[in-house]
Each structure stands twice: as C-alpha cells, then as structure tokens.
C-alpha cells in the first residue's frame, strides 16, 4: 500500500472475518478494472470500509506522516533506492533489467526483482532483492516460511501456485490459509505447490531436523566369513519320494504245476461243405 505503517501485523489483522490484506487482494483480483493499483484497493478497504479501524495503517492517504514515502523505493525494499536502481549491471542498469523482465516475461515487480537481484546480479543489485531486503518482516505466505518466492512462482499447469491461491481467495471469498490448503493440499499435493505452501504440512518442513539416535551404531563387519551353520538344513527329502516297497527278488507268480493242454494232433472230424450247385 506504499505505507511503512502497513506492517505484517496490520496486513493480517482481522476485519470482520477476513484480514485487511485478504480484503485488499480480493478487491484487486475480483475487480481488476476498478482497482488497477494496490493503492486504490488499500484506500477502499482502509479508508472507506474500515476507517480508523484495524486496517488504518494501510491507508495510503494518511500513512507515512513522517515524510518517508515508499514510492521512493523499488521492489518493496527500503534499500532499493534510486541510486541502486541506476547502478550498472554489465551493460544495463538494475532498474532497466528489472523493468525488462516485467515486460518481456510478464512478471510482477517482486518476481522480476528476485530474478535480477537474487539470481543474476546479487552483488550489484542485491539491495533490491525482496527476499532479504531491510523492510519490516511480514507474515510468510500461507503461514509457511517454506512457501518461498520460488514455490509461490512455481508453474502449476499454466498458472503459478500464487496465482491459483489468489484466484481461489477471490472466487471463493476465503482466507489465504484456506486457499493455500485447497491449492497445495487438494489440487497439487505432491508438488509444485505442496507441501511447501500447504499450511497443514509445512510446519513439519520448518521444524523437523535430523534426530540424533540414542542407539549405538552397529560394529563394523568382520573381515572373515561368518561361521558355518550350526546345524544342517532342517528339510530332508520326504519319504514320499522313496518307493514304499522294494521289488521282489523273483517273479511274483511261479509257473502252474499243471500247464494247460497242448493242441490235439487229430484231424478235424467235420468235412468241408459241398460246393454250391451250378
């Protein structure tokens, strides 16, 4: 909102069920033609809807009474002054490179600043890095420190995780946490949005550290082979494989004492039939 007083505490302050920041972002997403700048949405919420209320610190019409104007800075960084913006990074200035990325790659200022000041020219343009610049710390996206700008800008089937989360916020009129859960837990559970931006699981990523085992490590393996088995294998060939009885030493039946009679040698008694008569 261009206000130093629009801190993380004010941005996440409850305003009748939704935070000030959620209401501001929802206006921009739901009515992009009416609220073309963040400041116009901030003014509507902090000055018209909740005057002198929880969002008061984000009212651009009366914040920064100390004379400090956020418009003097870029990338949301107090250290990203005009002097840094005009520094030469090879043949182009930091500012020219950031503006080129915004136009050529259709990136937001924050995304372009991150690419130039964090990835490509950290030594020259580093004060314009939105990840570690010296503004007051705000609440992490989705309540997850693991939901970094890389995770927020990761492609999820044609749209970034952040774009999907903001769209869900506006379309369903829900909180950022609920939108993060829907996108990073239900729609893209195993990546690229989950688990980094999933408020149900990111705590495990943030707090878990390798545990130290209390169990002593096992001794090194011995150089010699282990001793042979103490007993032979338990299984032996089954008795069913052995014939049940040995073959007898002689034929099972001896010749009969009285063999059958031999054929007789006498001639047949019957005579052949007569030939048929002509």
Short overview:
Residues 262-278 have a biased composition (Polar residues). With 278 residues, this protein is mainly alpha-helical. The chain has helices at residues 8-11, 20-30, 38-49, 82-85, 94-104, 109-120, 122-125, 149-152, 161-172, 176-187, 202-207, and strands spanning 14-15, 18-19, 88-89, 92-93, 155-156, 159-160.
Q: Topology of this structure?
A:
Blueprint: H1 8-11, E1 14-15, E2 18-19, H2 20-30, H3 38-49, H4 82-85, E3 88-89, E4 92-93, H5 94-104, H6 109-120, H7 122-125, H8 149-152, E5 155-156, E6 159-160, H9 161-172, H10 176-187, H11 202-207
Antiparallel strand pairs: 1-2, 3-4, 5-6
Helix pairs in contact: 2-3, 2-9, 5-6, 9-10
Description of the structure:
Residues 208-217, 236-261 have a biased composition (Low complexity). Residues 208-278 are annotated as: Disordered. Residues 218-235 have a biased composition (Pro residues). The chain is mainly alpha-helical. Among the domains are: 8-71, no CATH class; 73-128, no CATH class; 141-203, no CATH class. It has helices at residues 8-11, 20-30, 38-49, 82-85, 94-104, 109-120, 122-125, 149-152, 161-172, 176-187, 202-207; strands at 14-15, 18-19, 88-89, 92-93, 155-156, 159-160. A two-stranded antiparallel ribbon has the order 1-2. A two-stranded antiparallel ribbon has the order 3-4. The longest helix is centred in the N-terminal third of the chain and has 12 residues, at 38-49. The protein is globular, with a radius of gyration of 45 Å. Mean pLDDT is 74; it is low at 207-250.
